[in-house]
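Quick question: what would this complex look like in 3D?
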Amino acid sequence: MSAVSDPPAEPRPLRSDLAGSDLVEPDPLAPSMPMVAHATLSEEAEDALPAHGEHDRGTLLASAALGVVMMIGAVVVLVDAAGLRPSDEVVGPAVAPTAVGILLGVLGALLVLQAGRHLRTATAPQELPHRRLLRLAAMVALLVAFAVVLPFVGYVVASALLFTGAALLLGAPHPARTAAYGWTLAGVVFLVFDRLIGLALPAGPWGF
Amino acid sequence: MDQVQSLVQGFGDALTPANLLWAFIGVTIGTAVGVLPGIGPALTVAMLLPITFRLDPASALIMFAGIYYGGMYGGSTTSILLNTPGETASMMSALEGNKMARAGRAAAALATAAIGSFVAGTIGTLGLTFLAPVVADLALTFGPPEYVALMAVAFVTVAALLGPNLVKGFASLAIGLAVGLVGIDAQTGQPRLSFGVPAMLDGIDVVILVVALFALGETFGHLLAGTGSATVEPVRGRAVLSRADLRRSWPAWLRGTALGFPIGSLPAGGADVPTFLSYSLERRLSKHKNEFGQGAIEGLAGPEAANNAAAAGVLVPLLTIGLPTSATAAVILTAFQSYGLQPGPQLFSESGPLVWALLASLYIGNLMLLVLNLPLVKIWARMLTIPAYGIYAGVLVFATLGTFAAGGTTTDLILLYLLGLLGLLMRLADVPVAPAVIAMILGPLAEQQLRRALAISEGDPSILLSGPINIVLWSIVALALLLPPTLAVLGRRRHAAPAAAARAH
């Protein structure tokens, strides 16, 4: 395993805003520890993003973006609600969607405002490496491709390709070995879920 | 005593060789998946749900109970050895447990966590056994107005307790409510938010939302954030407790249980809260205050027990009122429905034998886990050395499998990806995802009960405040809304850990 660990540092105290985050990387330890796992994106380990706090710029921008998405969602929900045929009941079909739409819109706006208020005092502007965004885009493309080809090539082939592609995007070091893992996993999952449990997974022209 | 007799019967059903095998498979797979870093109990049960689909309801429930408890156990192993808590509830375990492991006391840490979980799980399940039928009887007297009020309490507490601030907690809630709207309106048969897409007419399956927000959001976040390396602490020696450790552990286990079960069984969100309370309680009571932060065993034993007792407690409102108060409980509710059972006050009278077999298998699963976990802990530790790319790629394969089993169309997969991107945005914005999952399940139920209530009163909204129960419940809602801002104003300078830390899940 090619573990490139960050330079040994004083263990950080577990701060509340860090502790809950799933993006937080654990404290780097002395390199002499016996079992070392999770060596991925190794060439980039050094520029791995530091954990985000509630007031760093990345978090604030993401909050604002989520707020905007919620406001757009609110419009969609409200328009959809307006198109519903009313019933003669007190709580008709449009009542709940209208309430939810308003809630979405108000909270979205509040998120944007909250982010905007803190943005001036935000800490450490974080530059997101373009390579990472490209990786994310590639992952989404891979997943969409999986969904599209699944009915045609069957579960085993599609899943094996999904596993291999995803693992490589996540930094797997040996393409051939990763592909072997992928085929094995897909095969086992198919045998267990389709043959043993009877879930009827999509079969390709070759029956698996 | 009625309960004892029913429970004995339940044990009779659960102790058949076939059902014991299902329980064993359940706890093993549950632990194996729960141990994987970044995979909390909610995701574990959501991903493994398809395994149980083709079994008969009793075996499926028994296996599922095993997966649930196994996932909880697995999570604590990860927090101790790797310091990457898969969920908020095991954060406190990571705090002291990982420090102990670093000091070379991993075996003792795992032992106190496993035995503490067993003690708490068993007491919690006992509490569930005797409390649930009582609550179910009480719940039989509830009418629609009481349900509306109970759900309002759940909504507000979940949003208030799980976010870094009220706006973010409620934002998550609103997103979940919007997702819950999708599908055919039960009253008029009109499709809502379905945009003419056939796959969306039956609504969005909660498994899809859980997998999207927890698994895909996590994987995408991992891609963006990159990762350094994490070190798995080695386990030296056998996982046994020395006499001194035991003396320090057992009071903490009992105190943790005493906090965890009652708080967990409230029909309100916040099953994670007892772990924080237990940690600060142990810290205050300990004779070894200086060890806190450096690996104090009672600081691990208490929260670990609280977490497991709360996990049993959460089943009280779930089984008796049909009210899920955690993301995991929301998935369990769906699982029950897929087995043809409707949790609620009638569950005990209509499907009595099944429920009692489930309760019996909770005891059995707990015991199995203790037997399984202590000797096998080195194997679980090996699982932690699976590299992250392997885990996340494997999670994607299982996530798509679960989605396919739940929906079965390409549209469901596309929906999964879109929700996964939403989950990534929520994660980046520090918005908790658990309230969305709970709101998605509770939203449609609340609408239905509100309609019933107002149909009874012929449109008079005062029915919602009729009777003392409703008034108390709505007061709690008001309190939960007003208290956090008030406290924030009072103690602005104090960024205390627990309240702000209760996020992410």
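Answer marked as accepted. The two ends of chain B are 39 Å apart (CA to CA).
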